[in-house]
Amino acid sequence: MRILSNIYSFIYSLILSIISKLFWLLELFLLLRLLLKFLGANPQTLVVSLIYKYSDVLISPFSFIFRNIYWEGHLIETSVISAVIGYAIAMFIVFQIIKVFSRD
């Protein structure tokens, strides 16, 4: 029974670790887009266009909540900021749900 408990604990911590790492990669990806837009990166370059293309899917649920802000000639995409906050709230909820099902 002790071995089964150790296996369960290992799987539980592994799942939490994977979800946490995926969440942080998502957040970093969105923050990279925010930084590239703010600095005015050339959207015609391959890397920048790929980042914009794939992050568009992630921020589409948050588009048009607020207007974009132009600060001293730099673009601040509020949809990206909203997405970062929205995904952080979603991950908090997911972790709380996972915590409910843990045996701790």
Structural description of this entry:
The chain has 104 residues and is mainly α. It has one domain (2-100). Helix content is 72%, strand content 6%. It contains three helices and two strands. The protein has helices at residues 2-39, 46-59, 78-100, and strands at residues 69-71, 74-76. Helix 1 crosses helix 2 and helix 1 (2-39) runs antiparallel to helix 3. It is elongated.
> Biggest sheet, in brief?
2 strands, antiparallel
Shape: elongated
Supply the number of structural domains.
1
Low-confidence blocks of residues = none
Strand order of the largest sheet: 1-2
SSE arrangement, N to C: HHEEH
Number of separate strands = 2
Radius of gyration: 18 Å
Compact description:
The chain is mainly α. It contains three helices and two strands.
Chart the SSEs and their pairings.
Layout: H1 2-39, H2 46-59, E1 69-71, E2 74-76, H3 78-100
Antiparallel strand pairs: 1-2
Summarize this structure as a short list of keywords or feature phrases.
104 residues, mainly alpha, two-stranded antiparallel ribbon
